[in-house]
Amino acid sequence: MDTPATLVVNNLQTQFATRAGLVKAVDQVSFSLKRGEIMGLVGESGSGKSMTGYFIMGLIDAPGKIVAGEILLQGNNLRGLSAEAMRKIRGNRIAMIFQDPMMTLNPVLRIDTQMMEAVRAHQNVSRMVAHEMSREALARVGIASPDERLQAYPHQFSGGMRQRVAIAIALLNKPDLIICDEPTTALDVTIQGQILYEMQKLCRESGTALIWITHDLSVVAGLADTVSVMYVGRIVESGTVQQVLERPRHPYTHGLISSAPSRNPRGQPLQQIPGMTPSLLNLPEGCAFRTRCVHATAECQQTPQLREIEQRMLRCYHPMRASVMEAAQ
User: Fold this and answer.
1) Which Pfam family, an example, fits this chain (predicted)?
2) Which percentage of the chain shows pLDDT scores above 70?
3) Residue among 138, 116, 135 nearest 127 (CA)
4) How far is 120 from 99, CA to CA, in rounded Å?
5) Tell me: the pLDDT tens digits for 233-271?
6) Which residue, of 1, 5, 6, 273, has the fewest CB within 10 Å?
């Protein structure tokens, strides 16, 4: 019997009302995560990957809103829940780790106060138990002398240390789902590797599902089970990490991978995706990538639908063949 999905996002469509017009920040996005599964959500800046996470968390207010679709957590639709109901879910059943740790930490409260409040807001435990859980969480993310650090304020930590505290807070209640918005960007490589290991371990042991939002394909390659690639608000390719990163079929995915420094010969200029990302206020008709794609034809002026090709989902009329990709490498 198949395990029910922890999270199902079905045809999620959002928009922001601006003076210049409506912006479709997230458009027809669909994916699902099973218990313990890790998904990488990748794309250029402005592709909509962070907005997808914020809308799942219910952190976007007017002028942004969801206009269509479902967000199902353990089969329960989060769309339309009251603010009070979402507050009970956030930090307990779903948690988010932000790129800037000060979006999580209160600068005028001690770390122990903030962590213990995060525990006791959702669990009926004593202050002593909450304190011990907080100490263990700090040690888990590599913070030395956790008892001493619990007595400190956020301004007494470096940027990397603050981020580790924010990650520890997200882990406290062992939520069903954690959304990570590039949380290791400010950390050195050694600590980043430790955090990635701990996140994988948490998912395997507790069954927590994880969305890792990033532009760093190397992190996704070593962390995730599946990957979804976003371009101007839409998922253009998704599948297992091995399928997508080793044999990309969408020209945009291929361009992202080819532009990584490790894929270029020493001394040669970096490969680039031609052109610029279009404005969300003025997207080209049909496939939004067609103005930058060397494979585009007249057919691409019609909007492609996400369809299954070779055990992956793809939004493209002209998927790249293996022989074309090998010649381009």
Assistant:
1) oligo_HPY
2) 95
3) 116
4) 25
5) 999 999 999 999 999 999 999 999 888 777 667 777 778
6) 1
**Burial degree of 12 (CB within 10 A; 0-12, 13-18, 19+):** buried
- The gap between the terminal CA atoms of the chain, to the nearest Å, is 42
Query: Which residue type is seen at 317?
Result: Y
Q: Mapping DSSP to helix (H, G, I), strand (E, B) and coil, where does residue 8 land? A: strand
45 located within any domain = no
Whole-angstrom distance, CA of residue 162 vs CA of residue 174:
20
| Helix H or strand E segment including 111 | helix 111-120
pLDDT score at 110: 96
Q: Is residue 149 part of a domain?
A: yes
As beta bridge partners, residue 33 has: 7
Give the tokens for residue 233.
Answer: 């608000």
Question: Residue 134 is part of which domain span?
Answer: 94-174
In a 3-state reduction of DSSP, which class is residue 229? strand
d(CA 184, CA 99): 7
Asked if the structure places residue 142 within a domain, the reply is yes
The three-class DSSP label of residue 23 is: strand
Query: Tokens standing for 107?
Result: 């600068």
Does any domain span residue 183? no
Nearest to 280 by CA among 8, 9, 100, 44: 44
